[in-house]
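Sanity check

After download, print the first record. It should look like this:
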Amino acid sequence: MAYDYDLFVIGAGSGGVRASRLAAMAGAKVAVAEEDRAGGTCVIRGCIPKKYMVYASEFGRSLKHMEGYGWKVENATYDHNLFMDKMHREVDRLSGIYSRNVRNAGAEIIDDRAEFVDAHTLKLKKTGKTVTAGKILIATGGRPTMPKDVEGIEHAITSADMFHLKQLPKHILIVGGGYIGVEFAGIMSGLGVNVCLAIRKEAVLRGFDEDVRTHVHEELKRKGVKVITMANPTRIERIGDQLKTYFTNGETVAAEQVLFAIGREPNTKGLGLEKAGVKLNANGAVEVDEYSRTSVPHIFAVGDVTDRMNLTPVAIREGQAFAQTEFMNRPTAFDHAEVPHAVFAQPPAGVVGMSEAEARKAFGMVDIYKTKFRPMKDMLTGDEERVLMKIVVRAEDERVVGVHIVGPDAPEIIQAVAIAVKMGASKADFDRTCALHPSIAEELVTMREKYIPPELKPV
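Expected structure tokens:
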């Protein structure tokens, strides 16, 4: 049977764009359908605009730090609308680059939503036109979730709405202690907003190393964020220009804005996947094998829609591996182990490999090396912020299986450290590496003493 396209991609985000470009450059006839704008979550409503907001918020604290170095800045003000306008101009520019790159590779971009009619046929929603393809790639990403059991939830906003605030609230309540909630808590606080963060657990960043969780949690509070723990919201009530939120622990919080950052879900609803026979798991994510193949042999999925590891670079590498396997005769399965990731909190966290708990569960005996210290830059500013560095080592062969950093430039440092961890470097390899002085990162190669918990130290 002759198909309209060799490959049809649903979604022009990071994974879909990488896959479509490589497939087209390999000679395939490719089309990409995107119902919003090219760039996906990362470019439009995620990584990129969020990082710009982090930068904007950090300048406020930098003004205070400058005094320690002899600088005086008087009558400094922040213009939110000016910043947002410049940020969105950059987002538009990047989205345009994504579109041009797809077209320059020889693929076609269709500004429409595509839904399955059957396993080889898709319908374009705006025009009603149907197209067929030999292979189909689902790369529709994810979207923020909202609770269904909170009365008055219609008064709250999601992370996507945070990039379109016309003015800053005086007080914001953020519900959710994951990386999105923590990042926006730091952003809003840095921009001068009174922030309350409500979480279900005792500490933020569930799933991260316990030392990282504790350190970030304490830094949030030290920077003025009010943190309410063990709290689940039950009701939101509008009273004038205020939103009053009620929690299961009896607390109430009044704020002008309420942000729910309780997680994301795969963007699979309404795609007609059942018509194509594509299986989903219990969380609504597309089930795939190591080569991103779904339950239907010619249909594939990459990125957040598979809910494997929801990171932009991972989606890109999954899309690349798919194209290499299916169109370049180079069978490739992306390795999801030792992938570095960051939380752009303030201070930020950078992580690669296993937490201490994960390593102990996997290997039994592990050695821990960790330190806390004030960064040199703050010795003149008076800021009491601390850096945390922690190395997790498998005892049997001294292989470094995890590195965890919380502090200035942690994401930049962890990217380089990830190379060593991925290569299987040992603690001796770290120790043989000469320190670069003065730097924060030098502590990674100067830690010599194993950490012994206070309760295990001899009296």
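If your output differs, re-run the checksum step. Summary of this record's structure: The domain at 341-454 is CATH 3.30.390.30 (Enolase-like; domain 1).
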